[in-house]
Amino acid sequence: MTEPIITTDNLHLFYGKKEALKGIDLSFQERGITALIGPSGCGKSTYLRCLNRMNDLIDDVTITGNVMFRDQNIYAPDTDVVALRKEVGMVFQQPNPFPFSIYENVIYGLRLAGVKDKQKLDEAVERSLRQAAVWDEVKDDLQKNALELSGGQQQRVCIARVLAVSPSVLLLDEPTSALDPVSSHVIEETLLQLRYDYTIITVTHNLQQASRIADRTAFFLQGELIETNDTKKIFMAPEKQETQDYISGRFG
Ligand SMILES: Nc1ncnc2c1ncn2[C@@H]1O[C@H](COP(=O)(O)OP(=O)(O)OP(=O)(O)O)[C@@H](O)[C@H]1O
User: Fold this and answer.
1) Alpha helices in the chain (DSSP H)
2) Which BP terms in the Gene Ontology apply to this protein (predicted)?
3) So where are the chain's domains?
């Protein structure tokens, strides 16, 4: 096995005095999809947000333990958080395009990074929209306001916006839960293609979705990681009783 791309080691997180993550040891190999599952409030989103320091934006959060991205401890004081979030990008539950054109949405990060070369920007737009499987639907009207697209198209433009800055890791927080079944299916198919090139970590409430798309699955309960394994094993032969109870619908 190669070195993991992300490792968390004894990761604890407190919101004020409330401990939301209770010492999570988990690592992710490069490429492929890992699903984070578990009942509401178990800490999935909190954990995901630790991986690119999104919890920094929340008041009164205390984090201890290590989060390594390759050989870099991302909570080290000298971490360049903007550079980190370029490498470890995030897509949220609600599609959140900016209120301007599809083109400008996709190149947003590149503009921030100072890229001005029109040909480079055009290439990045086409590459990213193709990878996000929305190019054919929008290529004739890239100047259209992204807010005029359907929810599913908006979400794929948001994925393209993250891909445009060439990340290594994609974090997705319930990326389909605000979408209709057809759009959700298209996003799932898109992720199944992207898994060959990117390390994808997705939070999902939808166990069928986890079993359809994830190579590996991690089950969280009350701030603890109960079990992680190949998805087939988690669903067919979990090692822990709590996992069995959860996937068979006994709680959550
Ligand atoms: N900003 C916050 N301030 C205080 N407590 C929070 C905050 N965000 C989450 N929590 C608490 O931390 C715990 C874990 O929440 P988190 O959102 O990570 O769970 P989750 O498993 O993603 O839940 P869901 O599936 O409902 O989104 C919960 O008890 C939640 O109430």
Assistant:
1) 44-50, 81-87, 102-106, 108-112, 118-131, 135-138, 151-163, 181-194, 207-213, 231-236, 241-247
2) phosphate ion transmembrane transport
3) 6-247
